[in-house]
Amino acid sequence: MVGPKYHGPPPEASADIPIKYKNGSGGDGHWRGARPSDTEGAGDWWRVFSDPTLNRLETQAYTANQNVRLAVDRIDDAAAQVQIAAADLYPNVNLASSATRSRTSSTGPYTPERLVGSTSSLTGGSSTGRSTPVFTGSNGPVLVGQPISYTSWNFENPAQMRWELDLFGRIRRNVEAARAQTEQAKADLAATLLSVTANVATDYFTLRALDAQVVILENTIATRQGALQIAEERFEAGLVGELDVARAQSEVASEQAELANVQRSRAEMENAIATLAGELASNLHLPPGAIAYSPPRIPAGLPSRLLERRPDIASAERSVAAANARIGAAIAAFYPDVTINGATGFETANIGDIFAGQSLIWSLGPSITVPIFEGFRLKAGLRSAKAQYRETVDNYRNQVLSAFEDVENALADIRKLADQYEAQERAVDAAKRTLDLSEQQYDKGAVTYLDVLDAERTLLSDEQIAAQLAGSRLQATVQLIKAIGGRWEREFSRPPLNSVTSVK
Q1: Which of 20, 26, 23 is nearest to 412 (CA)?
Q2: What is the CATH number of the domain that holds 237?
Q3: Could you list the residue range(s) of the whole structural domain that residue 313 is in?
Q4: At what angle do helices 242-276 and 449-483 cross, to 10 degrees?
């Protein structure tokens, strides 16, 4: 086969892989290019969170998500394209039966024919009463005859064969490109599965963070309704003014409005999860649940392994392989095209003689087509193939850069969110202490009710932020798992790919 052999993406596309992550642990500095055989699937990584509801949703999304089904269909399409490309490696045989009835014209031009034998047989005219002119040329007598009109049938039943000899690998290069695209479609399926399951987990932890805020708001509303009742009793007793009652009523109504807003957000998040899981939003009901305030620790692994574990990088690498094969096909177009053509069958004017031995016809022979001048089309095709190859290499490099950005962002988020959550816990403890002191002083008349309300607002805000941070920490953990390709330990077994490809 003519054209360049494929040895992976150019070294400069991933020559600067670090030995350790900027925000994580180090490695040995060795790496290998991504290959589809290295993409073993993301695995059921979500089980590390030990949440039965999440496990059920992820399992459902793994087979029922519509984007996953689309990715499976693309694999089927790519596999069919391989068969289409490979079909040109074999002879193409077809049967072309035909029956034609035709009439010739008798008013056409004279037809000159060379006369064989004596001219004496032509003297005396023809059966039509017209004489047949005979002329003597430089090479002997020439007979000139008027065409005779006649109507006839012509029956043909030939089998035709065409076989292109792939001497320079044009067809084989196209097959190579089609196979690389099939492997790319499989890597795209793995990337889709990883993205879908990560989105399910992210939305699920957002929903649980909203559940935590609902509990906080409901407790706050219950506390402030109790404070309102006390304020009303004190007002009736003449111990406080009406202003304290109005403030207490305002705070209760404000928190009830905030609760309705959080519940609305939760309903929308539940609907989003239903769509990801391939279920109608009207049919999915997730009861409230608690959120884990301490996410599991996920090892980021070695930077040298990232190129092997990310399915999107494997997809980009297969795209480079396909583009490299298309360069070979473009080069092969400059070489001669050798084709074996053949035909055999029967041809007759009488349908009763269609299979008679005298009706047998056949032909067999090669044809060679040599491109001489194509209007620079072949040169333009080769330039296009090389440009597409460079484009796929640049895309591969971009995927590598994006992969390391994702990992570094996730590692930074996990570390900084842990520090932020720890500080927020201290803020919640301080706010609780402030509220206790404000209530004690208010009971003694040392401060106004406004001071108590300020302390309650601060505590509510700090508790809500803490719940949001808990959700953000879990989401950052999910993003790290997605960034490193999902799988990080052998004991996390992946569902078999056949269970996905058989969903139809």
Answers
A1: 23
A2: 1.20.1600.10
A3: 11-92+165-285+305-501
A4: 10
Q: What angle do CA 456, 218, 263 make, to 5 degrees?
A: 120
Measured between alpha carbons, how far is 219 from 255 in angstroms, rounded to an integer? 10
> How many Å apart are CA 209 and CA 167, to the nearest integer?
65
- Alpha-carbon distance 165 to 367, whole Å? 10
CA distances (Å), origin 224, targets 20, 384, 450, 491: 52, 71, 13, 50
CB 399 within 8 A of CB 312: yes
| 479 domain residue, yes or no | yes
Domain membership of residue 4 (yes or no) is no
State both tokens at 193: 């599965």
* HSE-CB for 301 with a 13 A CA cutoff: 23
- In 324-462, at which residue ranges do the beta strands (DSSP E only) sit? 337-348, 360-369
Euclidean distance between CA atoms 222 and 215, whole angstroms: 11
- What is the per-residue pLDDT across 421-466, written as a single tens digit (0 to 9) for each? 999 999 999 999 998 998 888 778 788 777 888 888 889 889 999 9
Contact 248, 228 (CB under 8 A): yes
- pTM of the shown model: 0.80
In a domain, 147, yes or no: no
Rounded distance, CA 385 to CA 377, Å? 12
Give the whole-angstrom CA distance, residue 235 versus residue 227: 12
Tokens 């007979």 found at: 143
Question: Is 110 part of any domain?
Answer: no
Pairing of strands 134-137, 140-145: antiparallel
Taking phi over 0 as left and psi of -120 to 50 as alpha, with beta for the rest, 375 belongs to left
